[in-house]
UniProtKB/TrEMBL annotation:
This is PCBP3 protein. It is found in: Cytoplasm. Coiled coil: none annotated. It comes from the Eukaryota. One of its GO terms (cellular component) is cytoplasm. Gene3D superfamilies: K Homology domain, type 1 (3.30.1370.10). Residues 11-79, 95-166, 238-306 form the K Homology domain. Keywords: Cytoplasm, DNA-binding, Repeat, RNA-binding. PROSITE patterns: KH_TYPE_1. One of its GO terms (molecular function) is DNA binding.
């Protein structure tokens, strides 16, 4: 009954948002004051997923009008953050407010509409940009829906999305997306380390330090030399070896296509890495890392990151 959303009958709805740590910090506010105010003024339940993940899930539950109120407060807060970040910046054009919703894939079809008709209608009537990700989020049956625009356009857009979600409830069981701790792929560019979160590359300060250390002591060795000589490091640094066991189903992502990933890890860490052959009946593979303690810890880090 679509009238339920427009009339006085208020249906309870849950909307999940995917946010980066920085955005979550802005929503929580000092000592949790901002989120407390949002909860009190909107009347919506606002839950923030635990964990030291670069991404967090913010769940907003309540009657539709409470949800719209909470969304408008979040959108305005992000707008404030954008204005604040622009005061000392040279950027002339103002970036739009962007929110990422997490929507069960079974509802995305209704949101897009036949031949994209529904999403086009939402874009045109609200002035917001709406994009539905083509792929599902890792280990889930949910997709990210990114909406951006002015706070007002975003609120209008959320209203229309809520109507669609109420009109066509999810089919079958939904496996919710749970952000993983920061073991995302790592990219090194311009002397900086970035972890990849969804479609974004996030600068990673701790990794940048590791990477810069690695670059000062290039572990790339001329062929024929077995142990890389680190300039500035005593060549007599004791080499030790470290053993890891890795589940068979994960070994592929460490080795990479034709060994490309494992070779990259060997080159970056300067450690020797041997992967034992699969043993009959065992679900794990033995991996031996040999080198200086620094090489080993970098190799371990890179393996874990993969």
């Amino acid at each position: 009954d679509t009238k339920a959303t427009e009339g006085g009958l208020n249906v309870t709805l849950t909307i999940r948002l995917l946010m980066h740590g920085k955005e979550v910090g802005s929503i929580i506010g000092k000592k949790g004051e901002t989120v407390k105010k949002m909860r009190e003024e909107s009347g919506a339940r606002i839950n923030i997923s635990e964990g030291s993940c670069p991404e967090r899930i913010v769940t907003i539950t309540g009657p539709t009008d409470a949800i719209f109120k909470a969304f408008s407060m979040i959108a305005l807060k992000f707008e404030e953050d954008i204005n604040a970040s622009m005061t000392n910046s040279t950027v002339t054009s103002k970036p739009p407010v962007t929110l990422r919703l997490v929507v069960p894939a079974s509802q995305c079809g209704s949101l897009i509409g036949k031949g994209g008709s529904k999403i086009k209608e939402i874009r045109e009537s609200t002035g917001a940009q709406v994009q539905v990700a083509g792929d599902m989020l890792p280990n889930s049956t949910e997709r990210a829906v990114t909406i951006s625009g002015t706070p007002d356009a975003i609120i209008q857009c959320v209203k229309q999305i809520c109507v669609v979600m109420l009109e066509s409830p999810p089919k079958g069981a939904t496996i919710p997306y749970r952000p993983k701790p920061a073991s995302a792929p790592i990219i090194f560019a311009g002397g900086q380390a970035f972890t990849i979160q969804g479609q974004y590359a996030i600068p990673h300060p701790d990794l940048t330090k590791l990477h810069q250390l690695a670059m000062q002591h290039p572990p790339f060795t001329p062929l024929g030399q077995t142990t890389p000589g680190f300039p500035g490091l005593d060549a007599t640094t004791p080499t030790s070896s470290h053993e890891l066991t890795i589940p068979n189903d994960l070994i592929g992502c460490i080795i990479g296509r034709q060994g490309s990933k494992i070779n990259e890890i060997r080159q970056m860490s300067g450690a020797q890495i041997k992967i034992a052959n699969a043993t009959e009946g065992s679900a794990e593979r033995q991996v031996t890392i040999t080198g200086s303690p620094a090489n080993i810890s970098l190799a371990q880090y890179l393996i874990n990151a993969r």
